[in-house]
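Hello Y.,

Per our agreement to keep a running log of every chain we model this quarter, I'm adding this entry. I've kept the format consistent with earlier entries: sequence first, then predicted structure.
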Amino acid sequence: MTRLPRWADVVLVPLISLLLAGIISALVILAIGQSPREALSTMVTGSVGSAYAWGYTLYYATSFMFTGLAVTVAFHGSLFNIGGEGQAQLGGLGVALVCLALPWPHWTLALPVAMVAGALFGAAWAALPAYLQARRGSHIVITTIMFNYIGAALIIYLLVNVLRPAGQMDPATARFPAGAALPTLHDLPILNLIFDKKIPANVTLFVALFACWLVWLLLWRTRLGYEIRAFGKSEPAALYAGISPFKVTMLAMLVSGALAGLMSINNVMGESGRLLQNSSEGAGFIGIAVALMGRNHPIGVFLAAILFGMLYQGGAEIGLWTSIPIELRTVVQGLVILFTGALDHMVRMMLGVFFRPRRTEVA
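Predicted structure for the entry above:
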């Protein structure tokens, strides 16, 4: 297959994949007797048409940045971490335990401790699959998928039998103290001039942006990042260079799990103010598509997270204001994942025809 220029690989391939997904989505909408134009108009207006819409899009995008970065770090070490969903839920448990432990006087004190707890619980949930891969040869994809279900069952058990307040029917923890509530963008000076209504996007957005920078710094400016990328490119070459597979596997997965666990400060601490069932809301799986579409680079992850935030919020608006089923959002997301992941090779082959080097004729 013809090797594409860097700009085509980074920009053109994702755009064509997105366009193909949009075309197929339009055909699906036509097939159910609805208007693709109405769907597109509602989705765009509902996701980016106002500051209020942006508030929801950025809220979803914040979660997707964390899980996309989690997949990215592991992927550079040739590890496909499918366990972001479970790691995020266990991260939520850590955040909830910290927030309920003390009567926090102010969110600036609660947030750093909650971040540490969420990261530690997420990393701990990724540690065992990493160890099984590094020492026993168990496939990381299988073990992380299994741990998603184990984590979900553990959270349900704890919410129903341990953490649920007496007399409460809802399987959830008590509400966090008022001092642990994170301010939304509407509550922040200057930004409240733009976001003049109450929105779910909160200060976690800035933590996610900082995490993007830290992941770039880790992967391309540190020795550990070099070892992770070298191991991911060629394990025999990494071994020859003295890089420990056990060390790389464990550290890459621990960082990956910590990033997934950090996601919980956005929805558990920032939005719901308590731990609920399925607190990760599927963001762990969407993070896989975000990382693939973002070409496993923090900048790409940021842009892809914004796109999927638009799809998530826009899909909800379609279900609310049109007769098009809200499940169409899942169809569109699935098509984007299909074209950016499974059919990525097909798109590259199509573009390879145009970037094939010309043969020079010999006189």
